[in-house]
Design goal:
single chain; about 230 residues; Arc Repressor Mutant, subunit A; 2 domains; 12 helices; about 0% strand
């Protein structure tokens, strides 16, 4: 049982957490495994009970560590909550960037980026359930700066899609809207679709909506005149 063992914290834990290419010692691997066990247990509790409803004692019990061991890894519940958000956003960014490797076509980049985003969210439903509830917990914002971090990640997200759209504008693919307006339109559609999926029964596929999002973004809501002529003819 994990709580019966001594947890040895590496000299520079932040460096091994942020370096995916590092060769880790047995002590460092053990540290990361136990840290991840805590994060996984906390994510499930926050998703099921909300931030205020989940206590550090419950998180310790769910991860099978003593409360003292839990505080060795995370000094406060706010810091634990913020860590989950930071790491999930980082992994989402890495997932999207990996999907674009080797792709040169702007339209395909946007298609793959949206697909990677939806796929990541589908695989991390519990996280995005707690993400939706962030604004319900103002005490977290005061102590942990969660809201500010969310804003920063959102702005980075907008800049990323804005950059893809700027490539398309330079190639003459898009109408004369600003790149920011188009990025916000695409992200807004994605966010609304994700929100609708999250509050649904949970047995439907988010990826099934991928092409609909792209169709609305690339072609708009109005029927093309040629389609109407074909139907009437």
């Amino acid at each position: 049982m994990p709580s019966s063992k001594q947890v040895i914290v590496p000299d520079k834990p932040n460096e091994i957490i942020g370096n995916g290419n590092a060769v880790l010692s047995r002590k460092e691997k053990e540290y990361l495994q136990r840290r991840q066990t805590i994060l996984d247990a906390a994510l499930k509790l926050f998703s099921a009970q909300g931030y205020s409803g989940a206590s550090m004692q419950e998180i310790a019990q769910a991860s099978e560590f003593s409360i003292g061991t839990l505080y060795n890894f995370f000094e406060t519940k706010e810091y634990l909550y913020l860590t989950i958000i930071e790491e999930k956003f980082r992994r989402a960014k890495e997932t999207i960037e990996a999907a674009l490797i080797g792709e040169q076509d702007c339209v395909e980049k946007i298609r793959k980026a949206v697909g990677a985003l939806l796929s990541f969210m589908e695989e991390n439903r519990d996280f995005f359930k707690i993400f939706l509830g962030i604004r319900s917990f103002p005490e977290v914002d005061v102590h942990g700066g969660v809201q500010q971090k969310v804003i920063e990640h959102y702005q980075e997200h907008v800049r990323f899609f804005k950059g893809l759209i700027e490539e398309g504008k330079q190639a003459g693919l898009f109408r004369e809207f600003s790149s920011l307006e188009l990025a916000l339109s695409l992200i807004g559609n994605c966010n609304a679709t994700i929100h609708d999926w999250l509050i649904g029964p949970g047995d439907n596929s988010l990826m099934a909506r991928h092409e609909r999002i792209l169709d609305m973004f690339f072609h708009g809501a109005l029927k093309h005149p040629s389609e109407e002529k074909q139907k009437r003819g």
